Automatic annotation (TrEMBL):
Superkingdom of the organism of origin: Bacteria
Species assigned in the record: Kribbella solani
UniProt cross-references to PROSITE patterns, sorted A to Z: GGDEF (PS50887)
Protein name, UniProt field: Diguanylate cyclase (GGDEF)-like protein
Domain GGDEF stretches: 290-429
Length: 448
């Protein structure tokens, strides 16, 4: 159950950034430019300051923090995909801040910036997806501005040399003030972008949930602890990954897992999760000026498997089908069981050719599927092939609401079954003035 598309390279001119309202575009670009300027000044200060260059201990700290933050991102990327989709018109909080703030206490700003850039580049390629590139550039910029503000607080408080970890009451107050400054600057910049880019969003939506901000505070606090340990025992930091991942799962994921649910027979998303995930993804597509592909598939003559081999064998076949589908979809696609032998695939950011290509891969895999099942009173049996019929629809090309999208895909699925099964039919755009659904002849079929 993953919701964000695979990260393929898109040229900057194709980024959704350019479709933002003018005020939002100017705001985002201004923040990006300021971040680049801060980066240049930080590098210049390191090269030509009173103590030029980077010390060996700082390079070691940078390598350790870069490695552990990357490991953290990789271990928690499925969680972050789910959470990214849920944050449509509210701040998307994450635990990158703990590594960033730990770096602030251990490294010069000229090394903090590369750590931030590395983290977001890795996230772009492995977690979030190609359609949100400009958002991740902006997020990295807000991190750089927040880090520069926090570094200024540390300097103003007299914590000039690394490590800047608390060793007394005053230094503790300075570090807490720097953490509060980091949080406030980053939070304010993100809220400003949300309000400018989504005029329909209310202030309450833009502010997000208090619990999310408490998670950020927890991350900043953990960053102080990591910096303190790193300054004395750098190779103990990787051990803390267990704590970090436990925090990530215990504080961030359960609220989505409880609402999601997993189908016990297939391991796919349940129909209830599907019903809540689709409108959220359509809303996200509207925000990003993107598309959403939908595949509905119905297993051909699946009842015969239940009647011939028994329902336990049918459950085994369903589980194998679910695994086969997940092996062919992209990392960011949602696969759900929406009925007895009815499955659905949500493909964020996919065009019609991409949807049809994925559908054809699934169809071929199911046709060639061979599995051994336990039958009722007959021992083991081999099922060769579990073919399916497919209906495809693209939002907003053929529909502008969830109901219309599902209906269009369902109509295409019926057309595929009537045409002989084991086929793929893509719904065509319906004229805006049409009162009746188009005939089956207006659908486009891709068959074996």
């Amino acid at each position: 159950m993953i919701l964000i598309g695979r990260s393929n390279w898109l040229p900057p001119r194709q980024w959704k950034l350019w479709s933002l309202p003018r005020t939002a575009l100017a705001y985002v670009l201004a923040i990006d430019v300021i971040a680049v300027t801060i980066t240049a000044l930080a590098v210049r200060s390191t090269v030509s300051g009173p103590h030029p260059g980077v010390r060996h201990a700082e390079w070691v700290a940078f390598v350790v923090l870069a490695a552990t933050s990357t490991l953290h991102l990789e271990s928690a990327r499925s969680i972050e995909r789910r959470r990214e989709m849920a944050a449509n018109t509210s701040p998307h909080t994450n635990l990158k801040c703990l590594w960033t703030f730990a770096a602030l206490l251990l490294l010069p700003l000229s090394l903090v910036v590369p750590l931030i850039v590395l983290s977001y580049c890795y996230s772009w390629f492995r977690v979030y997806g190609r359609t949100v590139a400009h958002r991740k550039v902006f997020s990295a910029s807000t991190y750089i501005l927040a880090s520069a503000a926090a570094a200024a607080v540390l300097r103003a408080g007299g914590l000039l040399g690394a490590p800047r970890v608390p060793t007394g009451f005053w230094s503790l107050l300075v570090v807490v003030a720097a953490a509060a400054t980091w949080w406030l600057v980053n939070y304010a910049l993100v809220i400003g972008a949300i309000l400018l880019s989504s005029p329909e969003a209310t202030a309450r939506q833009a502010l997000g949930e208090l619990s999310d901000q408490l998670v950020v505070c927890a991350g900043l606090g953990l960053g102080v602890a990591i910096a303190a340990i790193q300054s004395s025992y750098p190779w103990v930091v990787p051990v803390l990954m267990v704590t970090v991942l436990a925090l990530h799962r215990d504080l961030l994921l359960p609220q989505y897992q409880r609402a999601a649910g997993t189908d016990a027979k297939t391991g796919l998303a349940t129909s209830s999760y599907w019903a809540s995930a689709v409108p959220a993804e359509l809303a996200r597509a509207d925000t990003l000026r993107s598309t959403v592909g939908l595949l509905l598939l119905d297993l051909d003559r699946f009842k015969e498997i239940n009647d011939t081999y028994g329902h336990p064998a049918g459950d085994q076949a369903l589980r194998a089908v679910g695994q086969a589908i997940r092996a062919e979809v992209r990392n960011g696609d949602l696969v759900a069981r929406v009925g007895g032998d009815e499955l659905a695939v949500l493909l964020p950011g996919a065009s019609e050719p991409e949807v049809l290509e994925i559908a054809d891969r699934i169809r071929e895999r199911l046709v060639s599927l061979s599995l051994s099942v336990s039958t009722t009173g007959r021992g083991m049996a081999v099922i060769n092939g579990v073919p399916a019929s497919f209906g495809a629809a693209i939002y907003p090309e053929v529909a502008t609401t969830m109901d219309q999208l599902v209906l269009a895909a369902d109509d295409a699925l019926l057309t595929a079954k009537r045409a002989g099964r084991n086929q793929i039919v893509a719904a065509r755009p319906h004229p805006a003035t049409a009162e009746q659904p188009e005939s089956e002849d207006s659908d486009r079929s891709v068959s074996d």
